[in-house]
């Protein structure tokens, strides 16, 4: 997210301050988790004065909400591999990489969502946006005549991606990339 | 879980104290969540003296760990409906009921697992036990000749159940019982 946040807002001091602050939030969150995230640490890492942070973001939760908002308005879209199965495998590999990164921002944000309502709401909005964009893989498959129109894109994406979240976040067990691929294949086969 | 805990340990004062305390933990957790769970409230509700609670369970996390341990050693096993699809639908309806109960003990325990390592470890053990028992639906299907031997039971159960956890716990969106049934059907079809 960091590079995307930086690249997207080339101009303006306000935009630069935001991108520096959010990059610092991301780094602190990854290193120390939500419990270790403090306004002072973000100030020290970003070089932005703490009074600016308090004025603009108010709380640690406010910083996290803005980090997720910045992620949602980036230009991400799912890879176009030419087949539904290939597209779903690519999606699952991205989810797998995000959840198994050490440290994982995604895991830290999920944990934070169980601490504050604001973080939970921001994460819900972020995922709604991501799942809506990912529905493009279904639209492309319908346009190619690969699957019938009327397939429920959200249900299909749940079949593909939910096993990764359940295993790696809630069950707290490892999952290999080939197992992640398997769940993408099961999803693709379910609508053929 | 409460009734099972009670029924299983008919004799002994120590066993009775434990079942009264765990019933109180469950009720407090459901009403107030992990943040609202206190030794004093459990003492008041169970009628067991707080010094006993501190001596035997030490902390609120200790109480939660014991609640999950009690759930794991009960006699639960998956319903036998005569078909893999029927069995998976029955499993998904149980998961759906547990996650959509108001209040939901399961949702409260999952939230607690992001607060303390002890709760996370206890929940991991509880689920390992439950998924291992649920593998019986796959063994029965193989024995009936409905599916080939060698099907990965855990992957199959992830395909069935993970969408419910992802949608209802992490995405924090509703899911109907018929959608839960759909994911059981997708899982059953994936191994035929």
From TrEMBL, chains A, B:
GO molecular-function terms, A-Z: DNA-binding transcription factor activity; transcription cis-regulatory region binding
Coiled coil: none
Keywords linked to the UniProt accession: DNA-binding, Transcription, Transcription regulation
InterPro entries per UniProt: Homeodomain-like_sf, HTH-type_TetR-like_transc_reg, HTH_TetR, Tet_transcr_reg_TetR-rel_C_sf, TetR_C
DNA-binding region(s), residue ranges: 38-57
Domain HTH tetR-type residues, every copy: 15-75
Protein name: AcrR family transcriptional regulator
Organism: Kribbella shirazensis
